[in-house]
Amino acid sequence: MREISPREIDKNAIKLISEDWALLTAGSADGWNTMTVSWGGIGELWGKDVAFVFVRPQRYTKEFIDNSEYFTLSFFDDSYKGALRVCGAKSGRDIDKSKEAGITPVFENGTAYLEQANLVLLCKKLYSQDMTPDCFLDKSIITDNYKANDFHTTYVGEIIKVLKKD
Ligand SMILES: Cc1cc2nc3c(=O)[nH]c(=O)nc-3n(C[C@H](O)[C@H](O)[C@H](O)COP(=O)(O)O)c2cc1C
Asked: Which atom of ligand 1 is nearest the CA belonging to 89?
């Protein structure tokens, strides 16, 4: 893996998250977890390069994000789609994702990412906020997405390092 600047990420940002998906990871060698995400993005906020993700309250990974200063987003080539399906269907509370998905954590900077990734964003948390029903201007989004009242928490992180596999 070599370090590149966030400006050198040359993939379409929407496709990257919505089609390729990513593993959102947090924690350290003392305890970590990862889950698949396909909603989120990268961009610019407060004069900083940022990534933002949306996590439902029941996700085990959320506990690690909330207890960490950092989170990471790891992107993979197509051959890992099966691994991402596993990490997006089962909880780290019930299975060893590392074993079942064939992924290996790398611990760096007080956080964790996956060795098999071809692109990694290391992010320092800047902001988190729970979504609330009153803030939805289009109420159909609530009906369509939050039948269980499990509103996402938004996390915005400053991209402090980008690693790329050539
Ligand atoms: C393609 C895909 C995308 C997903 N995107 C998100 C997401 O953006 N936010 C979220 O909270 N859950 C998302 N999930 C669901 C979690 O990945 C899933 O519930 C996972 O099992 C949580 O694992 P955990 O309990 O170990 O954290 C997605 C699942 C899949 C398959």
From this structure: 21
Task: Name the residue of 24, 56, 59 to mutate for ligand 1: max ligand atoms within 8 A of Cβ.
Answer: 59
Q: Which atom of ligand 1 is nearest to the CA of 21?
A: 1
Q: What's the pTM?
A: 0.98
Note the pLDDT tens digit of each residue in 82-117.
999 999 999 999 999 999 999 999 999 899 999 999
CA distances from 25 to 31, 32, 70, 119 (A): 11, 7, 9, 13
Specify the residue with its C-alpha closest to ligand 1, atom 23. Answer: 91
Class of domain 2-164: mainly beta
Distance CA 32, CA 19 (A): 25
Closest CA to 33 of 71, 2, 6, 76: 71
Segment 120-145, tens digit of pLDDT: 999 999 999 999 999 999 999 999 99
